[in-house]
Design a protein that fits this description.
This protein is of the alpha/beta class. The chain folds into five domains: 126 residues, Rossmann fold (3-Layer(aba) Sandwich); 104 residues, 3-Layer(aba) Sandwich (Rossmann fold), CATH 3.40.50.300; 43 residues; 233 residues, P-loop containing nucleotide triphosphate hydrolases (Rossmann fold, 3-Layer(aba) Sandwich); 79 residues. 46% of the residues lie in helices and 18% in strands. It has 21 helices and 18 strands. A six-stranded mixed beta sheet has the order 5-6-7-3-8-9, sandwiched between helices. Strand 6, helix 7 and strand 7 form a beta-alpha-beta unit. Helix 3 packs antiparallel against helix 4, helix 5 crosses helix 6 and helix 19 runs antiparallel to helix 21. The protein is globular, with a radius of gyration of 31 Å. Pfam families: ABC_tran, ABC_tran_CTD, ABC_tran_Xtn.
Length: 648
């Protein structure tokens, strides 16, 4: 559908990428990956037609529509949520208005036999049929389903968009984009403002109801669930893999090892040649050989190796005082704003050294409870912060509290102590402030860069209770690994508010679910929690499980439902395998039917007097029979595998 030919982009005489060519096909689900600064967002802007490349072309048929969701956009404040979402169907509204005008004109005119009247009837009929094919007035239900999937309640539909935070307004823009159903959907970090339930809904939508998708995301679990092709931008080139992200990581590792071996062999060859030239440069008897070797060196096309990432860099929190056994204890905690109760009857105890996650839909009170713990807002009930607790708090507004007059390096230099000071440059590099970027003033940094700098600052301060509110929104995968390893090795207590399942996986041992005004404790990791929620929602049919239901009943239901069931990840893999096998069996059956028809046709020709002596017909018949045998064999193997998979 979209063809990219010889694309080149230069910034300050430096090529971001050069001579890049690839094709986006119908139903492609492409993950665009690479280090920060590699050009992923630039590539999306070029595909969207918002940026002109230095050289090369992007071409697509005239009727192909492209939708683009940037990381940052200018949002409107003039409508309600529903009115804003309805703008996605402006073309239908305009068509409806046109049909109404033609209908009125037909009613007013009396020249029934004229050519103009008959042309108007034809146009009215055609446009009315097109209106009905596009869904007519039924799009209202589609809007409600999409807004609901992205976390909006019915009560929100009539609220002005100005009442919502930037994250929720981004969801409205995402809803509008999805409702337009473009042929190619370009998404730049679409999960940054979504909770876990909304991300799972978006995964399903993109996998089952979209056309081509090109997305940039640092959520590994999300891109793994959605994509079937991975394009990596590295060293100004692209590497196109027709596989999901997890498989790409394995293949990329193999490619890098091959590159390194080839690079090392070439370097050895170059060194040996240079040594020969140096040794015999001034010997007349070796002049011919020396000149030959010099020409060899000039002709060698130097192998480039992808820059090594620093994900192996390990950060360690500085030592701090040992806290009491129970850093946080909440008893009958209540928080309300007027008549609106955010949560009530919250009772929880977080032990020293525990790493816990706060999860749930946006607006259910996760950040509110954090603010209660921090003493930033008042509440009812009892909240006890333990003995010797030193809190390190990361929230989005932390980035606004940095000293704008300092450079990036100085900001970190002032808080770093001990041996860590010798590694400041390495740490800054791991968080994408390598080279000249470390000398930038804080005041010129973007919002995302400030967020990353605030995160580094926090990592170097001695604390024993770490509270992180959506820490991964502006971090790439490599940097998230650095942060995750640092938190895993941290011997203090950690509370993480996050929607990033892959980041939480293997990090937290307890999950607190916020919803319906209650906070419910789940023992186990994030995928244990997701598995349990999946089971419960199946038992509850279409409705989402209510946190106010009896805990005992829900526990029994979850245990009964989880018997003989696969884990959440394994179930997802099995479903993918089943779909693949079912398609293979179906394709084989279609091919068998097609071949049998061809064989019948050839046999009918062979039965005629003319065909009986036609040796080419016999050769064709033999070839078709062999092809049929091969397809039948493939069908038998696939059918057996499908039966075995269904029996798992």
């Amino acid at each position: 559908m979209v063809s990219i030919e010889g694309l080149k982009v230069e910034f300050n005489a430096r090529a971001l990428f050069d001579d890049v060519s690839y094709v986006i096909n119908k139903k492609d689900r492409i993950a665009l990956v690479g280090k920060n600064g590699a050009g992923k967002s630039t590539m999306l802007k070029i595909l969207a037609g918002l940026q002109v490349p230095t050289a090369g072309t992007v071409s697509a048929p005239k009727d192909v529509t492209i939708g683009y969701l940037p990381q940052v956009m200018i949002l409107s404040d003039k409508h309600t949520v529903m009115e804003e979402a309805e703008l996605a169907f402006e073309h239908i509204s305009e068509l409806q208005a046109s049909i109404e005008r033609m209908n009125q004109e037909l009613a007013d005119r009396t020249d029934y036999e004229s050519e103009g009247y008959h042309k108007l009837i034809d146009r009215f009929t055609h446009e009315n049929e097109r209106f009905l094919m596009m869904g007519g007035t039924n799009y209202q239900a589609e809007i409600e389903r999409t807004l609901g999937g992205l976390g909006f309640s019915r009560e929100d539909f009539s609220r002005p968009t100005s009442e919502f935070s930037g994250g929720w307004r981004m969801r409205i823009e995402l809803a509008k984009l999805l409702l337009r159903r473009p042929d190619v959907l370009l998404l730049d970090e679409p999960t940054n403002h979504l909770d876990i339930e909304s991300i799972q809904w978006l995964e399903n939508f993109l996998s089952t109801r979209c056309n081509a998708v090109v997305l940039v995301s640092h959520d590994r679990a999300f891109i793994d669930a959605v994509t079937n092709r991975t394009i990596e931008i590295s060293c100004g080139k692209i590497y196109d893999y027709k596989v999901s992200y997890s498989h790409f990581v394995e293949l990329r590792k193999e490619r890098r090892e091959q590159q390194l071996r080839a690079y090392e062999n070439q370097q050895k060859q170059i060194q040996e040649t240079e040594d020969f030239v140096e040794r015999f440069r001034y010997k007349a008897t070796k002049a011919v050989q020396v000149q030959s070797r010099i020409k060899q060196l000039e002709k060698i096309e130097r192998i480039e190796v992808d820059e090594e990432d620093n994900s192996s860099l390990r950060l360690k929190f500085p030592p701090s005082l040992r806290s009491g056994n129970y850093p946080v204890i909440a008893e009958d905690l209540v928080k309300s704003y007027g008549d609106h109760v955010v949560f009530h009857d919250v009772n929880l105890t977080i032990n020293r050294g525990e790493k816990v996650a706060f999860v749930g839909k946006n607006g259910e009170g996760k950040s509110t409870l954090v603010k209660c713990i921090m003493g930033e807002i008042d509440y009812q009930g009892k909240l006890t912060i333990g003995h010797n607790v030193q809190i390190g708090y990361f929230a989005q507004n932390q980035a606004q509290m940095l000293d704008e007059s300092l450079t990036v390096f100085d900001t970190i230099d002032y808080v770093a102590t001990g041996d860590i000071r010798t590694k400041i440059r390495d740490i800054l590099g791991a968080f994408m402030f390598g080279g000249e970027a470390s000398d930038k003033k804080v005041k010129v940094l973007s919002g995302g860069e400030r967020t990353r700098l605030a995160m580094i600052k926090l990592l170097l301060e001695p604390v024993n209770l770490l509270i992180l509110d959506e820490p991964t929104n502006h971090l790439d995968m490599r940097t998230k690994d650095v942060l995750k390893d640092a938190i895993r090795d941290f011997d203090g207590t950690v509370i993480i508010v996050s929607h990033d399942r892959e980041f939480l996986d293997g990090l937290v041992t307890k999950v607190y679910e916020f919803g319906g005004g209650l906070v419910k404790e789940h023992l186990g990791g994030i995928y244990d929690f997701l598995q349990k929620k999946k089971m419960e929602s199946l038992n509850e049919l279409q409705s989402k499980p209510s946190l106010s239901a009896s805990p005992t009943t829900k526990k029994e239901d979850a245990e009964a439902a989880s018997e003989n069931k696969l884990s959440y990840e394994a179930q997802k893999e099995l479903n993918k395998k089943l779909r693949k096998l079912e398609k293979q069996v179906s394709d084989c059956e279609d091919k068998i039917e097609e071949l049998e028809e061809k064989i019948t046709g050839v046999e009918q020709k062979m039965a005629t007097p003319e065909g009986a002596s036609d040796m080419e017909l016999y050769a064709e018949h033999q070839k078709l029979k062999q092809e049929l045998d091969s397809v039948v064999e493939e069908w038998e193997v696939a059918s057996m595998e499908l039966e075995e998979a269904k029996g798992e």
